[in-house]
Amino acid sequence: MALQGPFVVVADGPAPDIVEALRKAGAFPVVETKWPDAADAVTSVAPEAVVIAEVCSDRERAAEYGRALAERIAARDSAFTPVVTRTREDASVPVDGALSLSASVPAARIAERVSAVQRVRTLHATVLRRMATLTSHGGTAPELPQSDPLDEATVLVAGRGRSYPALAVAVGERVGLVGALSVESAARALNARDIDGIVIGDGFGPRIVEALLTVLAEDVRFRDLPVAALGGHHGAVEDFYAHLPNLDRVGEGPERLVERFLPFVRLHAFAQRLKRMLKSLDAQGMIDPDTGLLVQQAFWRDLNRAVGEAEKRGVGLSIARFSFERGDRRTSLDAGRLVGRLMRQVDFACREADNSIFAVFTETDLRAAHVIARRIASVLKHTMLAADRKRGGIETAITLATLKPSDNVDSLIARVVGEVAAG
User: DSSP letter string over 194-209?
Assistant: First the structure.
C-alpha cells in the first residue's frame, strides 16, 4: 500500500537513502530528527510510523533515548505506531518491540517493511473507529484484549538439521510451537490452524525452501506472514523479498534469530486479533473476538430458537460438550478457533467460563452427531498445542445429547453436562 501521512526518521546524521525511499513510496512529510530530539518529534509530528535509520552512537545515553522514544509512542491516544529499525548484528534493538532489519539492507526494503506494517495500523484504526461508532449508537462494543498478543501466538518451525532442536526450544519457550520436518507437514499445519510466523531451519535443500516460499508467496493469506530463514539459503530466499515483505534470511544463531523475530510474530498475532474483532463488530458484538465463536448470550438465544424450530418441524438437533484434560485458557482459545474452522455452516458453538466448548448440530440425530463430534475431537487431539508437551497431546472428553420430544433447553443441557463421555 502507498504510504500516507507524516513519518519520523531517527539518526545521528542525515539519512538521505531512507528519506528518499519513503518519499518514493508516498510518505509526506518525512521529518528527520536526531536521537536527543526523537521523543519530542513523535509528540509534535504524530507520525504514522517511526523509522530508525541508525542506532544511537552515544552508548551511554542510548538506552535512555530509546526508552523515552518508546514511552512517548505508547502514550499516544491513537492507533498503534510501528517502529522499524536498522540494527547491526552485534547491537541490541534500540527500542523494545521494534521491527528490526539488518543494517545492510537497502532503503527500498525498509520502505516495503514500513508499507506492510501500515496495513496493521490501518486495521487497528478501523477497529477503533468501528468501536466508537457502535458505542455512540447505543450498542455495546466488545473489549479489545489488552494481553500481550505473544501469549496466544503460534510459530511453525520447519527443518530437520542440526539447528532444529535449538530452534524448537528457543521458539517454544516464548510462544506456541508447531514443528514440521517436511514441506508437506508444514503445508498441513498452515491449512489446519492459525500460524503467526514461520522459522525455516537448516536441513532443507534450496529447491525445498523455494517450494515452501512459493506456496507462501502465491497465497494472499500469507502475504504478511513473518518468515525467518536461518543460515545459508542464499538466493532461494532473496528472490522472494518482493512478494513476502516480512521475509528475512538471518545468519545469527537460534536465540538471536528468535529475539529479532518475535516482534514480527507479535504484530501478526495482533493483526489476527484485530480481524477477529472486526468480525465481532460486524455481528454487533455477538461473536467472541477471542475465538470467533458466538458469545454466550448469542449462543443461548440461538439454542432456544433452534430447539423451538426443531420441535416445530420435527427434525433432529444434537449438542456436544468438549472438555479438555489439563485445559487452561490458552488451550480453550486454541480449541475454540479450531472448532470454528471445523464446524458446518448450519452449526454454532460457544466457549464456556470453565473453558469447555458447547457445539450445537442442527438437523442432526445422535448417530450423525457422534460421527461429527468424534471427527472434531480427533483433529483437536492432533492439532491443539499442549501446555506440557512432555505429557503428549491434549485429551478431549466428549459428551453428547440429542433433543427428545419431552426436552426443553434446560433438560437438554443438563443431560449433555451429565452424560457419560462418548469416547
Answer: ---EEEE-SS--HHHH
Q: How far is CA 414 from the centre of its chain?
A: 36
Q: Over 90: is that where the pLDDT of 144 sits?
A: no
In angstroms, what CA-CA distances link 54 with 9, 41, 44, 111, 187? 9, 16, 21, 15, 37
| Cβ(296)–Cβ(350) below 8 Å | yes
- Return d(Cα 8, Cα 34) in angstroms, integer: 10
Look-up of cell digits 513523535: 42
Structural domain boundaries enclosing 221: 149-265
CB of 12 closer than 8 Å to CB of 55: no
> Hey, what's the cell of 54?
541508525
Q: For residues 316 and 254, what is the distance between their CA atoms, to the nearest angstrom?
A: 54
The answer as to whether 423 is a domain residue is: no
Residue 414: which CATH number?
Answer: 3.30.70.270
Angle of helix 366-383 relative to helix 329-342, nearest 10 degrees, comes to: 130
Q: What is the pLDDT of residue 277?
A: 93
Of 389, 186, 152, nearest to 265 (Cα)? 152
Confidence of residue 382 (pLDDT cuts 50, 70, 90): confident
Predicted TM-score (pTM) of the model is 0.88
